[in-house]
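User: Before I run my own analysis I want an independent prediction to cross-check against. Here's the chain; please return only the structure tokens and, at the end, one sentence I can use as a sanity check.
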Amino acid sequence: MSGQEEFSEKQLKILEQFVTNTSGNVFVVRNLPEVIKGALFSRYSRSASGLRSLLLQEFILNEETAFVEIAGLGDQDFSAENQYKAIQKAQNFYDRILDGYGDDSIGELGGAHLAMENVSILAAKVIEDVRIGGSPLEKSTRYIYFDQKVNNAYLFYQEPMIMASAYRDLYLETCNFLFDTYCKLIPSLTAVLEKKFPREHHISKSAYTAALRAKVLDCIRGLLPASALTNLGIYGNGRFYDHLLRKMQTHNLAELQELGRASHGELFKVIPSFIRRSDPSHKFFQSYATFMEHTSSELSQLAHHHAVHLSCHQHNGVFLIHSDEHAVRKVAAGLLFEYSSAGLEDLEKYCDRLSEEDLSRILDAGSAWRENRRHKSPRALERADFTFEILADFGAYRDLQRHRLLSQQRQKLTCQYGYYIPEELQNTDMEKEYIEAMGKAKKAYDIIATELPEEAQYVVPLAYHLRFYFHCNLRELQWLCELRSSPAGHSNYRYIAQEMALQVCKRFPSFERYFKFMDYEGYELGRMGQEIRREEKRI
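Assistant: Structure tokens:
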């Protein structure tokens, strides 16, 4: 092939360790630490040479890069500690490359897998707010029992400010009571549901057990306090971590500050060049901290000042509070744009004059051949946007918050908007225990929040309602609603997804065609179908 680079046998032998092939135009880089991959690709964008030539000449054969030590080659002792020392030794070289281009996107060329264990559910939500460039996975409250004890103690975060205050005993007593109630209801509710939904002969025991467990945990997860400890697995690029670390280390909560420091220390061992600006000693970090401190302080004061002039509705539900009246013609014009030579504004004016029949043909062309929800619609749907205000339980918010393109904000956790009671507990002795636990949590929150409003969030159970808003375009809304309305989903967030789709379709009937894989049904054992399919695959 013309333009193909040539290498000696010795060079090819070296390259084979680091690329999946040494001759083709398409190949994958492998067996290289993130700091080298990032710098290599940074240099690649400003070089006439191929990547393999760059790797050889400017990295492998360049003593300044400490390549041999970092990549763990040769006969020396290349332990993690020695690699770490080598990276520090070569840091100036990599920083010079990365700084030289002055482009933040360079930080997206290296990544790392980070595990955070024994993190509170409250802190996990703050971490997962930083979504672009990162992919977090969290221990599920739907499939894992949170009834474990270590050294005879339930696993919840013991917030240092509270633990050093007069509220220590109240906090511990309340969190323990919530966990006690959670554990107590597991066997009681399991027995009730087994009686209500006996296993049918054609359903395997393992599928039935898994579906039943999910149903039980769906019902009682609302008892878990925001202090409950969970685990997070995160993959992200350097740009993502740079932002996340700054956000964590400047947060008001001590837990997030400590997690930020610990995460910075571990990530520095792998992608140091990409997170150097999130070091508290760096001038960029210091200016960011000042910016965040002043912004938060000023907005907090202004919100408090203006609160006296605002009424606060407390109605649970989903409310479509904003949409663009020209959304239909914008989407239609966007669908035509890629295949036309006309300008976008001219297409919008043209679509505004079309008959309903002609407009429908255009909109149908963007949806008619979708065969399942994973068929992504054309990007023209991104031209219609919507804002929803939602008052729903924190547990449901946790599941919906993770959608990456979703613009969302929430208010602090409180106990002022009430809580949901699962239908399966209503009119039973279990309901009384559930209500008692919720009452204890509210009493504790109200007392602690008088002095420590930020820290008091840790005692709020997942069942309590939270006010938040979602702003999204039609394409993201389609994905979110079709996914989250599926039978296996939790009933609470299924309702939110269903309501968002229904309200958009009511306001814009023309958009109903884009929600063809919505599921508006209700399900008693929603995970049963998925567990049966899982079992069939296993067999």
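Sanity check: The radius of gyration is 27 Å.
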